[in-house]
Queue: 2 jobs
Job 1
Amino acid sequence: MKKLGIVAHSAEGASLCFITACRHGSDLLGPYMHPEIVMSAIPMALSMPGWESGDMDAVAEHLASGVRVAAEGGAEFYICPDNTAHIVLETTADTLPIPGLHIADVVCDEIRNRGFKRVGLTGTEWTMTGPVYERALRQSGTELIVPERGDREVIHSAIFDDLCHGRVTDSIVSDFIRITEKLKDRGAECVILGCTEIPLVLNDENSRLPTIDSTRLLARRAIDLCVNDSELVIRDGWVQL
């Protein structure tokens, strides 16, 4: 089996990704069994000044440090359970010591398989208005619908003020449900949970739209690749699905 690296950015999203990977491994391989996992956790606090000031070079260096830790631990490829981080990883992927499995590739593959053509997106402000999902969805002929500006501000604040700290309140849940309903009214057929903490508050049971859980999808697809005997296909620093 291949050894997996998990490059954490926020602790909550990375924790959910890790436990999902282990549980999926057990589903495939039997109780208590999963592929070996190397996990690095460079504190996200070190990257926040770069995010807030737009200094992506500073963010890139911290993410690269996490990838190097995973590589030094023997990981053959890595996943980063943080959608926003992929804005930076896309610019540095071919300079890193091991390839990554791109979270948007996994999400868009799921969307194609389920036949959705108009997709809502929730996440940080940088993810909702940034290039990662806009580009990935455009390539597959899928229309992207993002929340209105005021709703984006609500989501962004909830992520950094509460969800990244493990705090979930009824008002936050209500806000996400309300915003998802508005995306549905605008024609979205599903909603991407495009921040790895959003599954803490939104799921298929309380959402009016089918949810595309980027965190769990990434973890499960990575484990599937680990247990597959085929060699990884790599292009430009990314594992190809």
Job 2
Amino acid sequence: MEATYQTKAIILSRQPFRENDCRVIVYSRDRGKIDLVARGTKKISSKLAGHLEPFNLSDLMVARGRQYDYIGAAISQNCYYNIKSDSEKTACAGQAANIFNKLIKPGERGERLFGLLLDFLETLNKNQLSVINYQLFYHFFALSMLVELGYRPELYKCVICGNKILPNGNQFDFLKGGLVCAICRKNNKNKQVLPISADCIKVLRLAVESDLNKLIKLKISDKLIKEINNIIGSFYNYNFI
């Protein structure tokens, strides 16, 4: 086994460890989620610390150890300054990093997952949004991540009868993982459901098919934003909380 390796990674979190070290959780393009130790990064004189801040995209040189792998060198490719200088963007990025860290297992890798997280950070860094739209953008990211992990909701056919979904009278069934049509809704005994508007269905369909850069440009009313956030948030909570 190689004694050292190079990898490009996004820093998910950094926590104090031992007297002068930190534990750094990263998501690597080619190695997935990795738990690493960065020696001496709690010292003011540390040259590594600035390159290992949460949300950084960094090139890492990692040395293998018996219990932990250690970061020997790091160079930031992008610090996403516009995120870190804006409290609302920082909070949004923190939510995304937390959910990503929670759902991805150590060693789990995927080029599309890395690309999704990278697109999220780059799009958030470039665009200025209102507070309510930051929550919507986070929920779009969460839905895209759930789709990549195999939790794609059924948004075109009724999960009970299989017929095509028509515009009105539908509900989202969290147990069955998708839409229930107006006819089947009358006899659906499951209580883990929410009514869903035709406009919300349209946006959710677009969200699972489009990249985040397109979704951030959508013009959506505050009422619809609240509905979308509720549906996606409830879908996530049902599956993972």
